Amino acid sequence: MTKFVAAAILAVALVAMPVLALGSDQCSLSMEVSTEGPIFNYITGKPYTLLLTFANQTKGDVTIDKVDVSCKSSTDIKLDMKTAVEAPATVAAGANGVGSYTVTFPDGAGAQVLTLVGTVQYTADGKSQSVTQSRNLYVSPILELTMLPSRLILGASDEPSRVGMSVINHSDQVYKSSIDLTTSGGIRVSPASTEITVEPNGLEAFMFSVSPDGNPAPGHYAVYIDLGKTKDWVAVDVPVNAKKPSGKISIDGKTDDWTGASAVAIARLVDGSKWDVIGRARFAYDDTNFYVNVEVNDPTHFLSPDSKSRVNANPPSDSIVLAFDPLVDGASAPSGEYRADDVEFTVIGAEGGSVMLKTFANAKVVEADTKYPVAFSRNGNKSIYEMAIPLSAIKPMKDNMFALSILVNDSDGTKVTQTEWGGGLAGKIDPRRFVPVMLTK
Predict the structure, then answer these.
(1) How far apart are CA 80 and CA 78, in angstroms?
(2) Bridge partner residues of 289 (DSSP)
(3) Is 410 exposed, middle or buried (0-12, 13-18, 19+ CB in 10 A)?
(4) Beta-carbon neighbour count of residue 182 at 10 Å?
C-alpha cells in the first residue's frame, strides 16, 4: 500500500493522485481529494470532495458489491462524510465507475496526519475480490498556535520570562477575536487578554510574560490559552533552588544537619480533591555531591524476603526512586521513554545495610550497586533515606540545572502504594514531568 503525504501540495480545482492496483491484476482504484485555490494542507471544518475511481480492465462486466471509505489516525477521529454520487452497481469492460463523497474533517482532527482508506469489493467472473487505495493527508486546525518556549522555567535566567506565540490563520476568511490567558494559580500572566486580527492564510506574532504570584512552591504550573475553538497551554515550572549547606552533611539517616536546606512536600491526591502529605524531601549540594534526604511517614517498614532481585523482588520492598534529566530536555522525548542522558537510582533502606542501585543509565535498564554513600533509619513512624550522589553522575547539566522526580514505594508485603513528587515515574515514564532543580550560590 503506497502512501502520499499531502502536506505541501499546490492544487487548483482537483488534486490528482496516482492510480494503484491492489488485490487484482485487472482492476484498479484511484483516490482524488479536491479543493479550491492553492493549499499547503487541509483544514478542519471545510468540506472537500473525495473521488474514488474504479477502473475495470477485464473483458467482462464487473459488479460492485460494496464501497467503503474509512479514516485512520492516532486519535479517534470520526469523519463527517456524505455520499454525493453513488458508485454504479455495474462497471462495463474497459470502463470506469466513479463514486463521489463530501468529506469534512472535525475540529479535533487538526495538527495531525490522517489516512483515508478506500476499499471496493467487487465480483468478476463469479469470484469475489477487492481493491484498496489509501492517502495520507496533513490536516491543520483553522487556527494553528505555536509557542516558544513550550516549557518555561521561571528564574532559569536573568532575562524576563516571556513566551512568544504565533497564530496562523489557515482559512480564507479574516479572523478577529481575542487571546485570553489564564493560569493554574501560583503564577501571573500579562497581558491577560489581547485583541487580534489575522488575515486569510496569514500569521501574526504575540508575546506575553509570566512571573511568580507570591512565593509559589516548586512544581508544575500552566498558562492556558483560549482563542475560542482553538485552545492550548504552556507548561511553567517553578524550580527548586538547592543551596550549599551551612555546615557538613553527614550521611547517617538523620535530619539534624539539614537546617535551612531547600525542602518540598511529597503528597498524594485523596478522593480527587484533598492532598495527603506523606513525606518531605530536602536537597543540598557542594562542589562534589548532590545530597538528598527523604523522610516518609510509614508505620511499618517492609523488606522483602526475596533475594533474587532487589528491584523486582516479589513481594516488593519499601523503596524510593530518584530519576534525573541532566539536560532538562524531557520535552523532546516521546512519552514513555528516558533519553540517553537520563539516570535513575533506586534506594532500598535497611538499618545497617541500605543500598543505592543505578537502575537506568546510558539508555538502558541496569541493576548495579553504585557504592554511593547511603543511609537509612527509623524514627518512630517515619523512614529516613539519606544519600550523596556525585555531581559527575548527573552530568552534563544545563546551566547548573537538572530536572528531578522522586517516587516513594510503600509496600505492605501484598500491594504497593506509590506517591510522586514531580511525576513521570509511576506507570509510564515521562521525563517531561520532572521538576527543575537549580544549584544556586
Answers:
(1) 7
(2) 390
(3) buried
(4) 14
How far, in Å, are 103, 125, 422 from residue 356 at the CA level?
58, 72, 20
Helical segments of 228-332, H only: none
How far is 408 from 298, CA to CA, in rounded Å?
Answer: 11
Q: Is residue 390 part of a domain?
A: yes
Question: Residue 253 carries which side chain, given as an amino acid letter?
Answer: G
What CATH number does the domain containing 63 carry? 2.60.40.1230
Residue 365 lies in a domain: yes
- Cell readout for 29 is 482504484
- Residue 302: inside a domain: yes
Cell numbers for 356: 543505592
Task: Tell me the C-alpha distance between 223 and 232, whole Å.
Answer: 9
> Which among 73, 86, 218, 237 is positioned nearest to 149, based on CA atoms?
237
Report the C-alpha gap between 49 and 371 in whole angstroms: 67
pTM over 0.90: no
CA 421 vs CA 50, 277, 298, 425, 435: distances in Å = 50, 11, 17, 9, 8
Print the domain residue range for 255. Answer: 241-439
Cell of 79: 469523519
Q: Is residue 57 part of a domain?
A: yes
Measured CA to CA, the distance from residue 393 to residue 322 in angstroms comes to 12
Confidence bin at 281 (pLDDT 50/70/90) = very high
Report pLDDT digits (tens) over 182-208.
998 899 999 999 999 999 989 999 999
pLDDT tens per residue, range 8-51: 222 222 333 333 333 345 899 999 987 655 555 788 888 899 99
